[in-house]
């Protein structure tokens, strides 16, 4: 089988790095329209047997030609491309995976189910960290318990050495970050799927030293399809982002004065969208690619053999010093690589459009993560 990765940024590089070290694909190609970014990726991935190609995703015919030469394609580009790419993948009979990031886009991808099945293609959105890795944890909870009262997902990518004023660093696209903070959060509440405003319902959450007391607040995207998949199996399910204390209040103030608005305003005879300006300012002034950590805590309660039990999953993953790979790259890129390898190996055989919680086998997925030193501690109380 041949595989192509679209996007040579941080996540694309992590995916290719893992494929080179663990997969049996016959060929691996990474493509990007930005020559400088591609050259940077080539330097990072030196001595790996990879093809580096220039590809502009705006040119539909070029994308179609490329997909015809590959059995599997992975999108590591902004989520706005994913539905377009999924449609092409179905037509060219190419299995397709992406990192998700937007509920509406994933919903459009889901509409391709019958066509994908007819064309013998597997499409899997939401294969990153959250949704993705956390989605498989939720599946594990549902499989373990007879009934599930609640599942609370708490996830954060953070700098190891936080710097004021925001105590945050850019670990993925600033547009993705703004989207998480602006769009409504989806919550499953006893059979009803409701929307709540992001950056609200602030709570405290404890981790071992050196983190200790952190904060968590509602954000969009992390639940994705989970409330729909488990509408009849889980009582309550929500998702919150973990940050260092006081981050929420400071960042929300910037949003409240309109810095995330997309409607253009006039500045010195030029029209500028505040969100574009905000994203550029974040990129300019916040640390990028520094040593980071990803914190995950999933709390759940339910019944097993007529007894009330609590299941708690904890993951603390650090920046890879030896290979200069951030934890966010590891915990986002490696899961989608593992899932692609499951397709290549025939572990995943179903055809159609599925999200991670519907199709990824928990045990083997967790075992593969452990091989990469990503360990999820599961504790029954």
Outline the fold blueprint.
Blueprint: E1 2-6, H1 10-22, E2 27-32, H2 35-44, E3 51-54, H3 60-68, E4 72-75, H4 82-91, E5 95-98, H5 103-110, H6 113-118, E6 122-124, H7 133-144, E7 147-159, H8 174-182, E8 185-189, E9 192-196, E10 203-206, E11 213-218, H9 226-229, E12 234-243, H10 247-256, E13 265-267, E14 270-272, H11 274-285, E15 292-304, E16 307-318, H12 327-344, E17 352-353, H13 356-359, H14 362-371, E18 377-380
Parallel strand pairs: 1-2, 1-4, 2-3, 4-5, 5-6, 6-17, 7-12
Antiparallel strand pairs: 7-15, 8-9, 8-12, 10-11, 11-12, 13-14, 15-16, 16-18
Helix pairs in contact: 1-12, 3-4, 4-5
Give an overview of the whole structure.
This protein is an alpha/beta fold. It has two domains: 176 residues, NAD(P)-binding Rossmann-like Domain (Rossmann fold), CATH 3.40.50.720; 193 residues, Dihydrodipicolinate Reductase, domain 2 (2-Layer Sandwich). Helices cover 35% and strands 28% of the residues. The chain is built from 14 helices and 18 strands. Strands 7, 8, 9, 10, 11, 12, 15, 16 and 18 form a nine-stranded mixed beta sheet that branches. The chain has a seven-stranded parallel beta sheet with strand order 3-2-1-4-5-6-17, with helices on both faces. β4, α4 and β5 form a beta-alpha-beta unit. α1 packs across α12, α3 crosses α4 and α4 packs parallel to α5. The longest helix has 18 residues. The chain is globular and about 50 Å long. The termini are far apart. The model has no long low-confidence stretch (mean pLDDT 95).
């Amino acid at each position: 089988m041949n595989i192509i990765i679209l996007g040579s940024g941080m996540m694309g590089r992590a995916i290719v790095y893992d494929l080179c070290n663990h997969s049996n694909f016959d060929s691996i190609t990474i493509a990007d329209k930005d020559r400088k970014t591609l050259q940077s990726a080539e330097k990072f991935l030196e001595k790996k047997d990879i093809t580096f190609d220039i590809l502009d995703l705006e040119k539909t015919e070029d994308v179609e030609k490329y997909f015809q030469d590959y059995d599997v394609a992975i999108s590591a580009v902004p989520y706005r491309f994913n539905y377009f790419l999924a449609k092409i993948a179905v037509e060219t009979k190419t299995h397709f995976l992406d990192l998700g990031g937007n509920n509406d886009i994933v919903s459009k991808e889901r509409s391709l189910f019958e066509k994908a099945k007819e064309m013998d293609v597997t499409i899997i959105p939401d294969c990153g960290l959250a949704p993705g890795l956390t989605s498989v944890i939720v599946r594990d909870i549902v499989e373990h318990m007879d009934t599930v009262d609640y599942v609370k997902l708490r996830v954060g990518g953070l700098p190891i050495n936080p710097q004021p004023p925001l105590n945050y660093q850019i670990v993925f696209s600033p547009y993705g970050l703004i989207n998480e903070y602006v769009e409504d959060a989806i919550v499953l509440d006893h059979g009803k799927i409701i929307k709540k405003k992001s950056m609200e319902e602030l709570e405290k959450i404890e981790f071992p030293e050196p983190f200790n007391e952190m904060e968590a607040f509602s954000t969009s995207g992390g639940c994705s399809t989970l409330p729909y998949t488990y509408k009849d199996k889980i009582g309550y399910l929500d998702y919150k982002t973990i940050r260092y204390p006081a981050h929420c209040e400071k960042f929300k103030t910037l949003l409240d004065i309109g810095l995330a608005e997309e409607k253009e305003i006039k500045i010195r005879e030029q029209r500028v969208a505040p969100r574009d300006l905000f994203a550029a300012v974040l990129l300019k002034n916040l640390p990028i690619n520094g040593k980071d950590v990803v914190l995950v805590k999933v709390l759940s309660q339910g019944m097993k053999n007529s007894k009330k039990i609590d299941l708690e999953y904890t993951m603390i993953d650090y920046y890879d010093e030896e290979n200069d790979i951030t934890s966010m790259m590891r915990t986002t890129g490696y899961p989608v690589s593992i899932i692609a390898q499951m397709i290549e190996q025939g572990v995943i055989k179903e055809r159609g459009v599925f999200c991670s919680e519907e199709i990824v086998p928990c045990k083997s997925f967790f075992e593969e993560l452990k091989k990469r030193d990503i360990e999820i501690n599961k504790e029954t109380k």
